């Protein structure tokens, strides 16, 4: 269960990271509220996962899931570059996340 909570926390981190782009500097109320709610949920789920997981592992996985998801959505939704090197680096992050899951 803590790994599921951690993965969900990472997904909500993606939500607030992408949401920041849509807040237009916190001038748009609905995206701003949704972004703040995503931040709160993400932190709350991370806190719950930390009850059972080592802090270093949980934090690295949380930020890794957030980084991978944000990078992929940035390419898909926002036109960020999708070069082979960039995708390869994202794959390395995924390998790191999987490695941490295996040793924790």
Automatic annotation (TrEMBL):
The chain crosses the membrane at residues 33-50, 57-78, 84-103. It holds the Pfam family Multi_Drug_Res. It comes from the Bacteria. Keywords: Cell membrane, Membrane, Transmembrane, Transmembrane helix, Transport. SUPFAM superfamilies: Multidrug resistance efflux transporter EmrE. It is found in: Cell membrane. InterPro entries: EmrE-like, Small_drug/metabolite_transptr, Small_multidrug_res. Its main location: membrane. It is a multi-pass membrane protein. PANTHER family: GUANIDINIUM EXPORTER, SMR FAMILY PROTON-DEPENDENT DRUG EFFLUX TRANSPORTER SUGE. Belongs to the drug/metabolite transporter (DMT) superfamily. Small multidrug resistance (SMR) (TC 2.A.7.1) family. Gdx/SugE subfamily. NCBIfam families: PRK11431.1 (NF008512). This is Guanidinium exporter. It comes from Ollibium composti. The gene is sugE.
